[in-house]
Specification:
transmembrane; mainly alpha; globular; Acyl_transf_3_dom; 65% helix; 386 residues; 16 helices; Acyltransferase_3; 0% strand; single chain
C-alpha cells in the first residue's frame, strides 16, 4: 500500500511519521546527555553494556541532519532558482523559522550569566574572560558561527552548536540541489569534497590564525562541523530526490521500517566498540545516515505500527516542540530546575517537555505564524526545521 501523495501535491505534502521521528531523535539526545546508567560506567555485565549503548545516542543529531536534507529537498527542489530574489526569500525563511526562539534563549542565557552568575554559569571559564572576549563569544553565538571555533563551541545555548551546522547546510543547499537537478551522482562529489575541504582547513590553516580554536583538530572537524556531517545531509538529499521522482512510493519487498530500525540498533551497538578516533566517528556517521534513510523510506512507504505510533497526536505535539526541547534540555534551564528542587531524571524530563510544549505553543509557533503571514505574498513553502 502506498502512502505517498501524487506529484501534483508533493511540495505541500506532510509526513506525520517524520514529524514524530523528531521527538524520538530529541529523546535520544536527552538520554545521551543524561545517561540513566552512569553508575554502570565501569564494570561489566548487561548494565555496563546498556550504558555504553546509550553513549551512542548522540546519533539523534544525525537523524535530525538526514531529515533536514530530506525536507529541504522535498520543499525546494522544484521551485529552485539561483536568483537574488529567490535566494533572499529562501534564506529569510530559514532564519525566520529557527532564529527567533534561539535568539530569545541565547539572550536569556547570556543575561543570566552576566547579571546573575552562579548557579547559571555552567563553566568557570566565563568569569576570567576579558570584556572583548565576551563580546566575541556573544557575537559568534548571535551569528551562528560558533561551531567553527572549538574553544567557544559550548557557549550560550549549549546544544545550539548544531545550528551552525544546519545553517551552513542551508547556505550550500541551493547549490547542491541545482547540481543534482538531472542526475544524482554529484551528491557523491559533495559528500567527498566537503569533508576534504574541512580537513584541508584543519591541516593547512596557519596555526597563528586559529583564533578561538578555529578548525583546530580532526576530531573537532568530524564531530562538530558541517564538513564532518555533510555526508549525512547529502544522504537526506538523496532520499528526497528518490521520493520526489516517484508519483507513488512502491512498497519494497522487504519490511524496510523493521530492517531500518534493527540496523540502527546494530550500528549503534557496533559504535560502542569503534573507539573515538575521527576516522571511526566519521564511518559511524555514514553508517547511521545510511540505515536512517532505509528507516525513513519505510516510514514513508509502509503502513506499520511504528508509523501509526509516530502519527499519534501526542507524539506529533512532541515532534513539533522538539526544536525547543533540543535547545532547552541542557544549560541554564536545568539550573532553574535545580533551584526548584527538580533533581530526578524523570522529573527533569517531564519539566523540560512541558516547558518546550509551552514555548512552542505560546512563543515559537505564534512568532512563526506572524512571520509566515508577512511572507505569504512571496508564496514560498514553509519548512519546519529539525
Amino acid at each position: 500500500m502506498s502512502v505517498h501523495p501524487s506529484t501534483t501535491s508533493q511540495r505541500s505534502a506532510t509526513y506525520p511519521a517524520l514529524t514524530g521521528i523528531r521527538a524520538v531523535a530529541a529523546a535520544m539526545v536527552f538520554f545521551f546527555h543524561y545517561n540513566p546508567l552512569r553508575d554502570a560506567a565501569t564494570g561489566e555485565g548487561l548494565r555496563h553494556y546498556l550504558y555504553l549503548f546509550l553513549t551512542q545516542w548522540n546519533a539523534g543529531v544525525t537523524l535530525f541532519f538526514v531529515l533536514s536534507g530530506f525536507l529541504i529537498t522535498h520543499r525546494y527542489r522544484d521551485s529552485l532558482e539561483l536568483s537574488g530574489p529567490w535566494l533572499r526569500r529562501y534564506l529569510q525563511n530559514r532564519l525566520a523559522r529557527i532564529y527567533p526562539v534561539y535568539l530569545l534563549l541565547t539572550v536569556a542565557t547570556f543575561a543570566l550569566w552576566h547579571f546573575v552568575g552562579e548557579p547559571f554559569v555552567v563553566a568557570d571559564w566565563w568569569y576570567p574572560l576579558t570584556a572583548l572576549d565576551k563580546l566575541v563569544v556573544m557575537g559568534m553565538n548571535l551569528t551562528l558561527t560558533r561551531a567553527y571555533f572549538e574553544h567557544v563551541m559550548f557557549t550560550g545555548v549549549l546544544t545550539a552548536w548544531s545550528l551552525t551546522v544546519e545553517e551552513t547546510f542551508y547556505l550550500t543547499a541551493p547549490l547542491v540541489l541545482w547540481s543534482v537537478r538531472r542526475r544524482w551522482q554529484p551528491l557523491l562529489l559533495w559528500a567527498a569534497v566537503l569533508p576534504l575541504l574541512g580537513l584541508g582547513l584543519v591541516l593547512f590553516w596557519p596555526a597563528s590564525l586559529k583564533y578561538y580554536g578555529f578548525m583546530e583538530t580532526p576530531a573537532f572537524l568530524v564531530n562538530y562541523t558541517y564538513f564532518g556531517h555533510a555526508a549525512e545531509f547529502m544522504a537526506g538529499v538523496g532520499l528526497g530526490m528518490w521520493v520526489a521522482r516517484r508519483p507513488e512510493l512502491p512498497r519494497a519487498r522487504l519490511p524496510l521500517t523493521l530492517l531500518g530500525s534493527l540496523a540502527l540498533v546494530a550500528v549503534l551497538a557496533a559504535g560502542t566498540q569503534m573507539g573515538e578516533s575521527p576516522a571511526a566517528r566519521f564511518a559511524l556517521g555514514l553508517a547511521i545516515a545510511g540505515v536512517v534513510c532505509v528507516l525513513f523510506y519505510g516510514l514513508l512507504s509502509e503502513a506499520t505500527l511504528l508509523q501509526r505510533a509516530l502519527a499519534w497526536n501526542l507524539v506529533q505535539e512532541l515532534g513539533r516542540a522538539s526544536y525547543v526541547f533540543y535547545l532547552l534540555h541542557v544549560g541554564v534551564f536545568m539550573s532553574v530546575l535545580d533551584l526548584a528542587g527538580v533533581t530526578t531524571l524523570g522529573g527533569r524530563l517531564l519539566a523540560v517537555t512541558a516547558a518546550s510544549i509551552a514555548l512552542y505553543r505560546f512563543v515559537e509557533h505564534p512568532l512563526h505564524l506572524r512571520l509566515k503571514a508577512r511572507r505569504a505574498r512571496v508564496q514560498m513553502p514553509v519548512y519546519t526545521p529539525v
